[in-house]
Amino acid sequence: MSGIVDRRFDAVRDAFAENFAVHGELGAAVCVVVDGRTVVDLWGGFRDLGSTLPWQGDTLVNVFSVGKAFVAATFARLVGRGLVDYDAPVAAYWPEFAAGDKGAVTIRQVLSHASGLPALRRRMEPGAMLHPRAMHEALAREVPWWAPGTAHGYHVNTFGFLAGAVVERVTGRTLGTYLREELCGPIDADVHVGLRADDLARVAQFRWPIDPPPEVEPEGLVGMDLMRYNAYWNPSGLSGAGVVNTRAWRQAEIPSTNTHATARGVARMFEVLGAGGRAGDHDIVPGAALTEAVAEETVGHDLVLERPSRFGLGFQLTQPERPIGRSPRGFGHFGAGGSLGYCDPEDALAFAYVTNDMGPRWQNPRNQGLTAAIRDSLG
Q1: Helix-then-strand count for the chain, H and E
Q2: What is the pLDDT of residues 107-165, one digit of tens each?
Q3: What is the β-pairing status of strands 191-192 and 260-261?
């Protein structure tokens, strides 16, 4: 283990060490910022599956759905600058999207997972997720699985493609480029959707314990069961299984799923978001739009996850089953494998944990131990 810890947060160091000793951690990093000061910046373990290459402070790793928070921040910036309206129809920016009786679906419904588009019905070609244009075109043709706005269900992988298609049409830049140039770059947040070639050497391999399913239509699944399956596995590499360690995956733009970041980078962005979206002279996310983005929009039974979930406009919000921070104002996003980024404005705290091992997706003892240690340290 390497890095620094303020003595007040020794419990976080102990919990981080326990993740390796007890919970099978391969490689990971954790960063905590309080009142603008980094109080924890730790890393340890290995960045390769053979356990030969030590994790470094600038190691990048796939943080999966933590990236949805950065998509949410991107839209808050666009709304705050008058380029997008949360209540406007998606088709106002992306006319082809109106097909399939979706002309009234709004940006708000997409960002709050209420648009009814968590999956594609038609079987996609293998590797289609590596080609955003193909995913955009398929989503434009798709018919919602439920009446938009009447329920919500986690848009596991489609969220980023839907958002990316709008960003590209509004700004003339891909979501990954806009994120780098307008949000992350100005504040030195080491967060990327679509890695450039000179960053590939810093990327940790990800340990994924199962193979992807066959690239065929699943037998016997219909209706909502088919929807839930396809949300993760159409095409079968959609969630990253079988391709997560390839150059093609790392350099593609899959905003829901293949964001790569350091713990420092995630914490830096949440530090700024927790402070109202401004960093020095940089108004990264205008405050009024951010306030709207972190207000509760959907809550209760999730048709995809089949358990309770709670969302703002792209951000996950704290809930009893899965707390984010100590106060009701905490917001952020979890990622597959246990990665987590969040801020709690009441504590002026930003937190990031990144890992290269696919641990439990729902109740993960590694991030739970770290967040419990933070609560204990804050007193």
Answers
A1: 12, 14
A2: 999 999 999 999 999 999 999 999 999 999 999 999 999 999 999 999 999 999 999 99
A3: antiparallel
Q: What is the pLDDT of residue 108?
A: 98
285 Cβ contact partners less than 8 Å away, ≥ 6 residues apart:
73, 76, 77, 80, 183, 272, 273, 277, 278
Q: What is the mean pLDDT of residues 28-54?
A: 98
Give residue 63's pLDDT.
Answer: 98
- Over the Cα atoms of the chain, what is R_g? 19
> Are the C-beta atoms of residues 321 and 337 closer than 8 Å to each other?
no
Cα 68 from Cα 266, distance rounded (Å): 12
At 161 the pLDDT is: 98
Domain count, the chain: 1
Q: Which residues pair with 29 in a beta bridge?
A: 43, 354
Q: What is the DSSP letter of 241?
A: T
How far is residue 333 from each of residues 168, 235, 265, measured CA to CA in Å?
23, 24, 14
d(C-alpha 248, C-alpha 206), whole Å = 14
The residue-averaged pLDDT of 251-280 equals 97
Burial 107-119 (b: 16+ CB within 10 A, else e): bbbbbbbbbbbbb
Amino acid at site 27: G
Q: At 253, which CATH number?
A: 3.40.710.10
User: What is the rounded average pLDDT of the residues 94-104?
Assistant: 98
Kindly report the number of other CB atoms within 10 A of residue 160's CB atom: 29
Range of the domain at 231: 2-378
- Is pLDDT of 361 > 80? no
Residues acting as catalytic residues: 65
